[in-house]
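Sequence in, structure out. Go.
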Amino acid sequence: MKELTKAEEEVMQYVWKLKKAKVADIIEHMSSPKPAYNTVSTIIRILEQKGFVGYQKQGRGHVYFPKVAQAQYKDESMKKLINNYFEGSFSSMVSFFMKKNDLRLSDLEQIMKDLNKNKD
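Output:
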């Protein structure tokens, strides 16, 4: 899976949220200051080239939709983060975040309970 720039990922977040959207719809949901139409249109075309979005013609325009699920992108991003920064060790990543974010043991226990619920 190709990597997204910060701007591409921001636009992609709106595509995932809206499920189907024209460029104008995406811009409408963005916070101020809103980017120019041409900027978002260019980013959408790049996302299309990278295989993240598809489109359907609608009148003179296009309606865009995600071709890559948000969960799939999250999974790939997390794998890359763990491999690149924590030598593939999930426990090293958790340890890092516990130290940096002052997580309590009770927080970790709650995370483990949540994980165990999702296994069933």
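Check: The chain has a mean pLDDT of 91. Strands lie at 53-58, 61-66.
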